[in-house]
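Below is a filled-in request sheet from our internal design queue. Each sheet records the structural input a requester submitted and the sequence that came back. We keep these sheets so that new team members can see what a complete request looks like end to end.

REQUESTER: design group, bay 2
PRIORITY: normal
MODE: inverse folding
CHAIN LENGTH: 509
BACKBONE (tokenized):
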């Protein structure tokens, strides 16, 4: 009997020790350290909202960048840049937009170009993504609060729901893998792009030093979907160069689909390889988000290229002035750039009104969620079309790739579109009041600013009034921060009620 009691005591003691060790590991996982603790404390000061923290960090980075660009050392002439021009460029760089009111190739000094280069790299990776990377480097691990912060930045719908979080497109368990994907893909893709672009610039007549830094600058600008070009003549001399055109186009495409899609593709490839080797029975599959992003992006890219080609084929100032074999490539490149790239090989201001309207629609949609692109995002458009299709068929559920889309996702998509349209409408009205430019030009540049695209119909020049520059800068910031994140930051706390009111259906349509 005594031996049995002794054995039972030892088992209980062992269970207690294991439970204590497990609790200690959980506490270490949940309690942030180092830079992660600083982020958690700052988030607590701002009311516990990750969205508010995102907005504040954006504003701080814009302020720092604008201050540095106003220094005399930042301009090639040694004269301090005007506050409006410095702020506009800072917002355009941090928000990876690409709109500019100064000549990027000649206005800035080496110091100024360095500041802009760092700003667009930070903006392209994502402010909170970079902050999370710093937290991991400082504390050597990824705490639960930092994971939630990162997941909320990648998937803003998590900011609205507190239950069933694992049903979202961004799971907490994927955050660490996503961070690795961000870091590796940024370095690898930009290096490959630079390795292709630099020799083309050198062959075109640039000296080795200029080819190196301008090639690296173009590679970063392409992948981050910024659209800044350090070349004096822009990309026009390379309009017929398929290597340069497709290299930049592929860089913009990879940046626009989003890091979660790149992560999903990499994970599927690893799973397929392990299955071939017999080390796992799992099937390689892409989630609904990745499939919707890739499918919608491809459809919009092809339809946009066809529309641009048909509308501009006879325009001597754009596609009509190019050889016949170059025109399809230019149409495809322009369609890709309208998704948020911002590069152009022909003068955008020479496009006809119908083409500008097509580009307006492409820019407003933008790229993938959690990408370097802007706009309302392709998944938002896809969900709205799926909802309309389900309603036309009388289906109760919205289904995509054998998965049901929750109703709250549809409501969120509608909110994003309405917020985006409201921002564009207000900014357009303000600019029409400030300037005497025609509506189609103003609307084009406003949507380009909101969608962080960077294409311009000729409105954004140094002659633009300072008030108009501030309006466009605010539009870029609102577009980059994200309509969902902004709405959540302004809403403060979540409203939860314990009752539901009586239902009455209004007439719609």
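RETURNED SEQUENCE:
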């Amino acid at each position: 009997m005594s031996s049995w009691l002794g054995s039972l005591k030892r088992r209980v003691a062992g269970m207690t020790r294991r439970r204590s060790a497990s609790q200690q590991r959980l506490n270490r996982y949940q309690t942030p350290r180092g830079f992660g603790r600083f982020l958690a404390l700052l988030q607590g000061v701002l009311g516990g909202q990750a969205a508010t923290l995102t907005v504040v960090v954006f504003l701080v980075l814009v302020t720092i960048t604008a201050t540095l660009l106003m220094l005399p050392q930042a301009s090639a002439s040694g004269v301090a840049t005007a506050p409006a021009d410095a702020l506009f460029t800072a917002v355009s760089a941090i928000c990876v937009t690409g709109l500019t009111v100064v000549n990027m190739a000649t206005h800035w000094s080496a110091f100024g170009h360095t500041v802009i280069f760092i700003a667009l790299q930070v903006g392209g990776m994502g402010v909170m993504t970079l902050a999370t990377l710093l937290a991991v480097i400082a504390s050597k691990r990824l705490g639960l609060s930092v994971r939630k912060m990162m997941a909320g930045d990648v998937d803003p719908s998590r900011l609205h729901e507190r239950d069933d979080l694992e049903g979202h497109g961004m799971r907490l368990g994927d955050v660490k893998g996503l961070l690795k994907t961000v870091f590796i893909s940024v370095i690898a893709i930009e290096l490959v792009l630079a390795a292709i672009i630099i020799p083309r610039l050198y062959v075109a007549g640039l000296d080795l030093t200029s080819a190196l830094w301008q090639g690296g600058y173009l590679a970063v600008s392409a992948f981050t979907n910024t659209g800044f070009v350090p070349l004096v003549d822009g990309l026009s001399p390379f309009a017929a160069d398929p290597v340069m055109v497709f290299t930049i186009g592929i860089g913009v495409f990879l940046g626009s689909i989003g890091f979660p899609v790149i992560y999903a593709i990499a994970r599927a490839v690893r799973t397929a390889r392990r299955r071939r080797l017999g080390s796992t029975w799992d099937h390689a599959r892409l989630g609904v988000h990745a499939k919707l992003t890739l499918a919608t992006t491809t459809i919009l890219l092809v339809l946009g290229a066809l529309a641009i080609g048909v509308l501009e084929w006879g325009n001597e100032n754009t596609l009509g002035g190019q050889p016949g074999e170059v025109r399809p490539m230019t149409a495809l490149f322009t369609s890709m750039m309208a998704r948020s790239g911002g590069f152009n090989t022909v003068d955008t201001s020479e496009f006809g009104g119908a083409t500008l309207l097509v580009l307006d629609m492409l820019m407003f949609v933008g790229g993938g969620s959690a990408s370097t692109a802007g706009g309302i995002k392709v998944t938002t458009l896809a969900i709205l079309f799926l909802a309309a299709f389900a309603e036309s068929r009388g289906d109760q559920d919205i289904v995509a790739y054998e998965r049901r889309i929750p109703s709250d996702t549809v409501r969120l998509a509608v909110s994003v579109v309405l917020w985006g349209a409201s921002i564009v409408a207000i900014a357009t009205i303000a600019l029409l009041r400030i300037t005497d430019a025609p509506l189609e030009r103003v609307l084009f540049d406003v949507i380009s600013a909101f969608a962080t695209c960077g294409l311009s119909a000729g409105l954004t020049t140094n002659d633009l009034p300072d008030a108009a520059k501030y309006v466009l800068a605010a539009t870029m910031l609102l577009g980059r921060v994200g309509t969902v994140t902004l709405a959540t930051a302004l809403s403060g706390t979540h409203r939860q009620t314990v009752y539901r009111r009586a239902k009455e259906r209004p007439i719609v349509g």
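SHEET NOTES:
- The beta strands are 398-400, 403-405.
- The chain has a mean pLDDT of 81.
FILED BY: M.R.
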